[in-house]
């Protein structure tokens, strides 16, 4: 069964590479129901040693065991409803106009209370854009 799942993931990745041009994000959902959104611009998907490896502009941006993957889907919005991180960095949420709307403690930060719209998330030296529908 393990070989069948790896072969299926390989086929999914091949199809995903061709579909990426039509969408802004690839949302990866694990069996633990955690969603990671990856901007497709410059994204390259490979698998090695039983892991999905996503790189962007030559840097690894995401790695996950194939057995821990539930499904992936493309969208023009990301699937982020919360931010989960093990760093000690505080999460700051800004509007696209630069106004800070929320400061969240590190770890698991719930974003579901934010109104629909685009936001900039700053956590330590990492900055990313999210869209909440």
Can you offer a commentary on this structure?
The chain has one helix and twelve strands; from the N terminus they run αββββββββββββ. With 133 residues, the chain is mainly beta. The protein folds into two domains: 2-75, SH3 type barrels (Roll); 82-132, no CATH class. The protein has a four-stranded antiparallel β-sheet with strand order 9-8-11-12, with no helix packed on it. The longest helix is centred in the first third of the chain and has 18 residues, at 2-19. The chain is globular. It starts with a helix and ends with a strand.
Proportion of residues in extended strands = over 45%
Number of domain modules: 2
Count of runs of 4 or more consecutive helical residues? 1
Strand and helix order: HEEEEEEEEEEEE
Strand runs, count: 12
Q: From the 3D coordinates, which CATH architecture of the largest domain would you assign? A: Roll
What proportion of the residues is helical, as a percent range? 10-25%
**Coarse structural class:** mainly beta
Ordered list of secondary-structure elements with their pairings:
Layout: H1 2-19, E1 25-30, E2 35-39, E3 43-48, E4 51-56, E5 59-65, E6 69-75, E7 82-84, E8 91-95, E9 100-104, E10 108-110, E11 117-123, E12 126-132
Entry keywords:
single chain, 133 residues, mainly beta, SH3 type barrels, 2 domains, 4-stranded antiparallel β-sheet, 3-stranded antiparallel β-sheet
What is the structure about, briefly put?
The chain is mainly β. Helix content is 14%, strand content 50%. It has one helix spanning 2-19; strands spanning 25-30, 35-39, 43-48, 51-56, 59-65, 69-75, 82-84, 91-95, 100-104, 108-110, 117-123, 126-132.
